[in-house]
């Protein structure tokens, strides 16, 4: 059974930074690509960053140049470094497979506000 646990969210001012973490269990982590999704109030969940099992990454246009996804296969973890945060980045952030999502974790809330 796959379990995903996200952490690292919080309240930050515009222009600030946060680093999100996700630990995965129940999978052979280094065989899977991973992604970070977000869901803002009243909006559909969207994929904002993904990384292959060979560390090739790509990003949604809305976060390109500001967010960086990375992974540590030894720890079964994936990270999202978020810089230059904007109010429109406010959302609940989730990690999951970018191809065929498993059961969702609880997510971590990111709020960008003065």
List key phrases describing it:
47% strand; mainly beta; 114 residues; 10 strands; 6-stranded mixed beta sheet; 0% helix; 4-stranded antiparallel beta sheet
Task: Describe this entry's structure for a reader.
It is a single chain. This protein is mainly β and 114 residues long. Helices cover 0% and strands 47% of the residues. The protein contains no helices and ten strands. It has strands at residues 3-7, 10-12, 18-25, 34-39, 46-51, 57-59, 67-72, 77-82, 91-96, 108-112. Strands 2-10-9-4-5-6 form a six-stranded mixed sheet, with no helix packed on it. The protein has a four-stranded antiparallel sheet with strand order 1-3-8-7, with no helix packed on it. The model has no long low-confidence stretch (mean pLDDT 97).
Gist of the model:
By secondary structure, the protein is mostly beta strands.
Strands, total number: 10
Run of helices and strands? EEEEEEEEEE
Secondary structure: helix percent: under 10%
Radius of gyration: 13 Å
Secondary structure layout:
Layout: E1 3-7, E2 10-12, E3 18-25, E4 34-39, E5 46-51, E6 57-59, E7 67-72, E8 77-82, E9 91-96, E10 108-112
Parallel strand pairs: 2-10
Antiparallel strand pairs: 1-3, 3-8, 4-5, 4-9, 5-6, 7-8, 9-10
């Amino acid at each position: 059974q796959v379990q995903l646990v996200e952490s690292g969210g919080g309240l930050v001012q515009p222009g600030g930074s946060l680093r999100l973490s996700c630990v995965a269990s129940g999978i052979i982590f280094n065989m899977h690509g991973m992604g970070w999704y977000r869901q803002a109030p009243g909006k559909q969940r969207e994929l904002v960053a993904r990384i292959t099992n060979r560390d090739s990454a790509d990003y949604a246009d809305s976060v390109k140049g500001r967010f960086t996804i990375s992974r540590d296969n030894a720890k079964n973890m994936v990270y999202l470094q978020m810089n230059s945060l904007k109010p429109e980045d406010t959302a609940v952030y989730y990690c999951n497979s970018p191809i065929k999502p498993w059961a969702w974790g609880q997510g971590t809330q990111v709020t960008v506000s003065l």
